[in-house]
Design goal:
The two termini are about 35 Å apart. The chain has a domain of about 140 residues: Reverse transcriptase/Diguanylate cyclase domain (Alpha-Beta Plaits, 2-Layer Sandwich). With about 500 residues, the chain is mostly helical. The chain is elongated. The chain is built from 21 helices and 5 strands. The N terminus is likely disordered. The protein is about 70% helix and about 5% strand.
Length: about 500
């Protein structure tokens, strides 16, 4: 990609094109975002610029999300997940699992969603030096949790994000606001007031700094109205409604209408209160959160009861209360599902860590002989198939090194050779310390790829000052897995090539 008039960034040389796709997706121009992403993906693949590909797929995925094309978006999330796993990007995998869970939730596939969120949470819990990418993954987790009305999980995520940046304060305030409204509707008034006060505190700080921000004004008005501070709530709501409707900011316009309706009801102006709450409900036709309509319906039923305290109004209100409690019970089931899925994933991760430790060579950190034998068994059972190349790397004259410099120096040399071998392996390759000074690599690819990797390992060892004053070298034999070949046959073929490399003078490769 030489000559492109763009700098190299975390998004790759095509970063300006990546940003354009995301900007289009996030501003409601989904069709343009998808067309641009397809064009730029073709360019990236043609030029071999693989670094930008995941970000372009991600932008296309978000465009489908905003357009309500959930199956198409989920397919792109699956594709992105495979890329991150192949690249060994744990945080990329975690973020995409959260995005995939978001699509699952929108398609009412809650079991899959909770499993994906649980896996993402376990991945994010591991230590990560890249705080920015972890914050991005945590944001996707919070968004998926919000879509599932799991306010507890979303709020905890936003609190973590708030420790490093204030960029998510208003989103957190909105989570607290809806959480408080739902708690109030099921009769947990003290818990509701606590959330509403926290939401109001956040939005008041923002509104004081940005008095022209009508979205913050609408949020603050709704929190204050439910807390009974109806005079400032009414004033804020009246000022916000028309600017928000004119800007087609319908979610915040709904909040302003609802805040005004609740305030008017408190003043006893019931007809006007009903008009405002009806207006809030009508704006739900323009989309919105799944929890908004139940909230508006509850306030409408409460207003209807205030207008006419007859049997029919009481019956209607009791029906709405029953539905509200049932929705809350279903919501709590999702929270429990996530907790159980998280426990299962943590247990599975602990088992995997224990298994890896059993299969790890303590000196070098590579796989051990037991791992080697298990991989040969996988070849015999057909679970590890071509294209596969086995490399056998042997340190030349290693016994002489031990005899001349001590076993501690020899151990240090083995660790450095292991580091070089590992550095030339991809995520899907498996390096193993076979025995003593011999290493193997189960390499995914053909013989040409195997020769390239073997030569890079040989050259890297030869040019490294592993032991001062000593030129340490390795010989490498390699063979490719062929149809109907057993694991033992592959190893014998590789060992024969290693013998040929040593016979030809060492510090060379043979295939």
């Amino acid at each position: 990609m030489e000559g492109l008039p763009v700098p190299v960034t975390a998004f790759g040389p095509l970063h300006l094109l990546v940003l354009r796709v995301h900007r289009l997706a996030n501003t409601g121009r989904g069709h343009e975002a998808i067309a641009a992403a397809d064009a730029y993906l073709a360019l990236a693949r043609l030029s071999g610029e693989h670094k930008s590909i995941p970000y372009l797929i991600q932008g296309k995925m978000y465009a489908n999300l905003h357009m309500g094309r959930y199956p198409e978006g989920a397919e792109l999330a699956e594709e992105l997940l495979r890329l991150h796993r192949a690249n060994g990007s744990a945080l990329g995998e975690a973020k995409t699992l959260c995005d995939l869970a978001h699509f699952d939730i929108l398609r009412s596939r809650y079991v899959d969603a909770m499993r994906n969120l649980a896996r993402a949470a376990v991945l994010m819990d591991a230590p990560h030096p890249d705080r920015g990418r972890r914050a991005s993954a945590l944001c996707s987790f919070a968004e998926a949790a919000t879509a599932a009305e799991m306010y507890e999980n979303a709020s905890a995520s936003y609190e973590q994000l708030g420790e490093t940046t204030g960029a998510f304060d208003l989103v957190h305030a909105m989570t607290l606001l809806y959480w408080g409204l739902r708690l109030d509707h099921i009769g947990r008034h003290d818990d509701a007031a606590e959330r509403l006060h926290r939401s109001a505190a956040i939005t008041r700080r923002h509104a004081d700094q940005r008095p022209d921000d009508m979205s913050a004004a609408a949020m603050l008005a709704l929190a204050l109205a439910k807390l009974g501070d109806v005079i400032p709530a009414e004033k804020l709501a009246r000022e916000a409604i028309m600017p928000l409707r004119a800007a087609e900011s319908f979610q915040y316009a709904r909040m302003a209408h609802l805040a005004l309706g609740i305030s008017l009801r408190a003043h006893g102006d019931l007809a006007a209160a009903r008009t405002e709450i009806v207006a809030a409900g009508e704006l739900c036709a323009f989309g919105g959160r799944p929890d908004e309509l139940p909230i508006i319906r509850f306030e409408m039923a409460l207003t209807a009861l205030a207008i006419e305290d007859g049997q029919s109004s009481r019956d209607l209100f009791e029906a709405v209360v029953g539905q509200t409690r049932e929705l809350w019970r279903v919501r709590l089931q999702r929270v429990a599902m996530l907790r159980q899925a998280r426990q299962q994933e943590e247990a599975e991760a602990a088992r995997a860590r224990a298994e890896r430790e059993v299969l790890r060579d303590p000196l070098t950190g590579l796989g051990n002989r037991r791992r080697f034998d298990l991989l040969l068994d996988r070849i015999d059972s057909g679970r590890l198939a071509a294209p596969l190349v086995l490399l056998l790397v042997d340190v030349d004259h290693f016994k002489a090194v031990n005899d001349a410099y001590s076993h501690s120096v020899g151990d240090r040399a083995l660790r450095e050779v292991a580091r070089i071998v590992r550095a030339h392996c991809r995520t899907e390759d498996v390096p193993v310390r076979y025995a003593g000074d011999e290493f193997t690599v189960f390499l995914r690819g053909d013989l040409r790829v195997g020769r390239e990797v073997a030569e890079r390992i040989r050259a890297a060892v030869a040019h490294s000052a592993i032991i001062p004053g000593v030129r340490l070298t390795v010989s490498v034999g390699l063979a490719a897995l062929t149809p109907d070949m057993t694991g033992d046959a592959l190893f014998r073929a590789t060992d024969d090539r290693l013998y040929a490399a040593k016979f030809s003078g060492r510090n060379t490769i043979a295939s």
